Amino acid sequence: MINTIKKDLIIEGKTKKIYSTKNPHEIIIHYKDNLTSLHGLKNKLFQDKGILNNEITTIIFKHLHYNGIKNHFIRKENNREQLCYKLNMIPLEFVTRNIVSGSMSKRLGITEGKLISNGIFEIFYKSDKLKDPLINDHHAVFLEIISYEELNFIYSVMKNINNILKKYFINKNIILVDFKIEFGKNKKNEIYLSDEISPDTCRFWDKNTKKKLDKDIFRIESEKNIDIINTYMEILKRLHEN
Ligand code: UDP
After folding, report:
1. Among 54, 71, 88, where does a domain finish?
2. How close is the Cα of 76 to the center of ligand 1, in Å?
C-alpha cells in the first residue's frame, strides 16, 4: 500500500525512521530491518524483521489502549509503518524486570532466572555518547529531564503496563522477563507511552522450556546460528492465537 500522508524524514535511528505528516501533531514511524546491540556496535539486517515488529507493536499497543494505557499509536498504515501522535520524547529508557537477566544479572552478580516478585524499575539516560547509563530518580530530576511528580506517574503506569502484559503473555505461554519502554509528552504536557514494544525491546521466555524468544539470541549466539526471523514469527503467531 502506498503511503499518501507521509512527508519528510525527521530523524533516522538505528531501527526506525520518523517522518512528518500533513498533520503537525502526527508522525509516521517506519520499522527498519536492522537489529543492533552493544550500543550499535553490532548491527545486522534481518529481512522483514521490521514488518514483524510493526505488527507485534501494533497488537500490543492496541491491547494496552483497550486496557486504559494512553499511548501514541493511532493506526497501522502499511506493513512497515504506523501513524502515531507526535510527542516530545523524554530522553529516558524505563526498564521493568520480573526475572533477573541481562545487565542486572551482570551488574549485581545474580544468576539469570531469579524471580523478582514485585518487579523492579530502572531508569537509563538515553545518551549514545555516555552509552545510556543507569541512573536514579534524583539524577533524572537533577538533569532537569523530569520532575518527581512525573516520575511517580510513570512508575504507576509502568506497574499497570507490567500487570497487563504479564497476564497477556502468560496466556500465550510466554514469560515476560523484562522490557524497556519510553514516554513522551503531548502539547498539553500529558505523558503518553511511546516507541515500540517488541522482541527487540523485551525478553520473552517460553513458559515450558524457558527458551529465549527475543533479541537475546542475537546478543548471545554467534551470528551463524541465530534465527531471528523464525523466533519473531513464533511470537507473532502466539499473539494471533486466542
Ligand atoms: N533494552 C532495550 N533497549 C536498550 C537497552 C535495553 O530495549 O537500549 C531492553 C532489553 O531488550 C531488555 C531490557 O530492556 O528487555 C533490559 O535490558 P538490560 O538492561 O538487561 O540490557 P542489555 O541486556 O541490553 O544490556
Report:
1. 88
2. 25
